[in-house]
Amino acid sequence: MSEIKSGEKILEEFFESITSIQDVDKNLANKLKELYRTKKFTETYVKNMIDKLLDEEIKNET
Fold first, then answer.
1. Residue-wise pLDDT tens digits, 10-45
2. What per-residue confidence (pLDDT) applies to 62?
3. What is the DSSP-derived secondary structure letter of residue 21?
4. Closest Cα to residue 17, out of 2, 4, 5, 32?
5. DSSP string, 22-40
6. Which residues are CB-neighbours of 49 under 8 A, at least 6 positions away?
7. Is the pLDDT of residue 61 over 90?
8. CA 34 to chain centre
């Protein structure tokens, strides 16, 4: 019989394995994992983190 998992357990397992997803951006995955771990996984925090990563990427290209 299958174990019924809570939503929290499913999210924990997802974020623990996010970096092993094929072709995933490891830096982005680790940042998302950290936001979830520190209970800051909100739209605002995620948007700000992505904006910061994009700014860094643009800066590194120039």
1. 999 999 999 999 999 999 999 999 999 999 999 999
2. 76
3. S
4. 32
5. TT--HHHHHHHHHHHHTT-
6. 31, 32, 35
7. no
8. 7
What's the burial of 31, exposed, middle or buried (CB within 10 Å: 0-12/13-18/19+)?
middle
Q: Which amino acid is it at 12?
A: E
Domain boundaries, the chain: 7-61
Q: Distance of CA 54 to CAs 4, 12, 37, 51, 60, Å?
A: 38, 26, 22, 5, 10
d(CA 3, CA 18): 21
pLDDT of residue 2: 79
CA angle 14, 20, 22 (to 5 degrees): 110
